[in-house]
Amino acid sequence: MNKTHELEQKICLLTERAEAVMLGRAAWGLFALLSVWKKTNSSSKIAMPSFLCQSPLAAVLLAGWSPEFLDVDPLTGNVSNAEWDRAFDQNIDAVLFVHMFGNASNADIISAQCRAKNILFIEDAAQALGASIESKICGSFGDASLISFGHTKLVNAGGGGAIVTNDEKLAKEVRNFGLKYAFLDFDRQKYAESFIKKFYSCRRLVTSSLSEAKYSFSGIIFDYKNLISLKWNCHLAEEILKKLNNLPKLVSESRKKNDLYVSELKGSPLVPLNFSKYSVPWRSVFRLPGIDWRQQFDISESVRKEGVDISNWYIPSHWMMDGLNSRNLDLRETEQLSREVFQFWVDETANEVSIKHAASIMKKTLGC
Q: pLDDT tens for residues 81-121?
């Protein structure tokens, strides 16, 4: 527990916050926040991007909130100002603001608008640890902010996350909620493997029948909800502390590796994500404009057969909801980015040799 307390103090200093609460995973922190904040006997709405990992959506639903899905700008991966304006007209109670792929976006502007409108502002900095906006670090903007130390994150301890806030009362409520919460005891690995198998079965359908795939994805998020609940493992504290001490180097290396990918893939039809100046790329992200789902799949499979890791996350979250209205939302830029995206690793597994090799294989596959 002493190491956990030391870690929380370290995170407070890093994010310029008064309070930090360690969590089993960042998504459970979102669930805890929304559970604490939920209004009694009323429907609570949260605006959030549809281009997003399924974990935040599962947390939202587990807490009994209703998502208001927003489209994203395919050039940045983040929600545009026009979409935020649309969200504010939807009578929302909260905002989940995401720095997608570590691309630091305008949290300063949107958080100020939320304060003026008495809307709760949750900053998801899970992929953006070390990034900043106008010299203010990501994780310092929300009424509460989420950071992650999970698999493939910049500070990768294989698990764990934190809520950071300046609200002492809120931090205490989240701690008490965690102490009283009945965490389920079940075979997490078996449950996760079952979900992944079903997810990728649906994912393959996209290449042959989009309408059938959307129908197949419908409701799949409810199979994931139990995986949100995870206790904080205090044995992770020492490893996270050690890696946080190395954060400046990790940030510098992430940026250099992304720059190398951009340089090596220059001249190919791939378009790099437009990262803002002080972002910290979680992945090196590119789009291949105009391709369809089948082409994305075939290109990725060809590259993987050459031993190169490549990712096409994410499937639009609104497809995973029950009901025709959700599946048929007109979020065409989210679907465009999902269809065109290719991501390469820039974590500790990547180095100059592997990056040049991956870029070479990608260009060969594209006929460059």
A: 999 999 999 999 999 999 999 999 999 999 999 999 999 99
CB 64 within 8 A of CB 44: yes
* List of residues 6+ apart from 168 with CB closer than 8 A: 18, 19
Q: Whole-angstrom Cα distance, residue 10 to residue 149?
A: 14
Radius of gyration of the chain, Cα coordinates, nearest whole angstrom: 20
The pLDDT tens digits of the residues spanning 175-229 come to 999 999 999 889 999 999 999 999 999 999 999 999 999 999 999 999 999 999 9
Nearest to 102 by CA among 140, 143, 153, 57: 153
CA 6 to chain centre: 26
CA distance 269 to 130: 30
The SS3 call for residue 126 is coil
Closest CA to 257 of 138, 344, 323, 169: 344
Q: Which two tokens stand for residue 330?
A: 């007109």
Tokens 């992945």 correspond to what residue?
283
Q: At what angle do helices 81-88 and 107-117 cross, to 10 degrees?
A: 10
**Cα separation, 141 vs 163, whole angstroms:** 12
The pair of three-digit structure tokens given for residue 215, joined into one six-digit string: 């129908």
Type of residue at 302: S
